[in-house]
Design a protein that fits this description.
29% strand; alpha+beta; 12 strands; three-stranded antiparallel β-sheet; 40% helix
Length: 255
């Protein structure tokens, strides 16, 4: 850096020996690299700022290349139940926290993103966390340039409570409250596929003879217990045959 015209400029000097008038001389090339160094400095400052934002973000952030962790912030460590950032960075691959039956999907997703097919929506995934817990996460992943090479940045948002609530609501919408077998609407939905595919099946409609006498003599609570016991018995046998059981109404069941 040298002063010039009331400001400092950065120069690059390239010198070599030449012959001038039959005598050795030094030829010096002076190149102004001020703008280049300024751009590098700004990129460096931007990179430091970006890394600081990543490290202090309340969202879990992981950067990996072929599932080898390159950078991870404290929020990700806490969400995944790991002991420390150092523990995560020491891993050869973080694919171990992904359920085994989802490994191939995760690999294909990463390959697709690296090929420029970054999804424009988030995806819900499940992870076996370091502390043994099983959690659901909303993930946003995209390609970034990390230290000169492409890598994948994954931003996590834990949605375990939301996913479990949605599953519970869906279960309740499809099952009878008393017997926990499918309700009539769920049976109609289930039967569409085998009917459309013209799959042969057997169907039974089962009820309890003179069930009103049970309610009249012993009360409705005992009647409910009888219905539930019958549902459990049917379900035990039918599930062995990969069948389904539904409550058609009252003391009627469909198999």
């Amino acid at each position: 850096d040298i002063p010039a015209n009331a400001r400092n400029i950065s120069i690059f000097c390239l010198s070599h020996v030449i012959e001038l008038n039959n005598k050795p001389a030094l030829e010096v090339h002076v190149i102004d690299i001020t703008s280049m160094l300024e751009a590098q400095r700004k990129r460096h400052e931007s990179d430091l700022m970006y890394r600081k934002l990543l490290s202090t973000s309340k969202q879990g952030i992981l950067i990996h290349r072929n599932f080898k962790p390159l950078m991870v912030n404290q929020a990700w460590v806490e969400q995944q139940g790991a002991e420390s950032i150092e523990q995560v960075l020491a891993m050869d691959s973080i694919i171990s926290i992904i359920p085994e039956d989802q490994h191939s999907n995760a690999i294909r997703r990463c390959e697709s993103i690296l090929n420029g097919n970054t999804p424009n929506f988030s995806s819900v995934v499940s992870n076996h966390c370091f502390d043994g817990s099983y959690k659901y996460f909303n993930i946003y992943d995209n390609v970034i340039n990390w230290e000169g090479e492409d890598a994948i940045q994954v931003i996590l948002e834990e949605v375990t409570d939301k996913v479990l609530l949605e599953k519970e609501l869906l279960y309740r919408a499809m099952h009878d409250d008393l017997t926990q077998v499918l309700n009539r609407r769920a049976i109609y939905d289930w039967i569409k596929k085998p009917v459309n595919q013209q799959i042969e099946m057997s169907c039974m409609l089962i009820d309890i003879d003179d069930f009103k006498l049970i309610n009249d003599q012993f009360g409705h609570s005992v009647g409910d217990a009888v219905i539930k016991h019958l549902a459990d018995s049917i379900k035990t046998h039918v599930e062995l045959l990969n069948g389904v059981v539904g409550r058609w109404g009252g003391e009627e069941f469909i198999v």
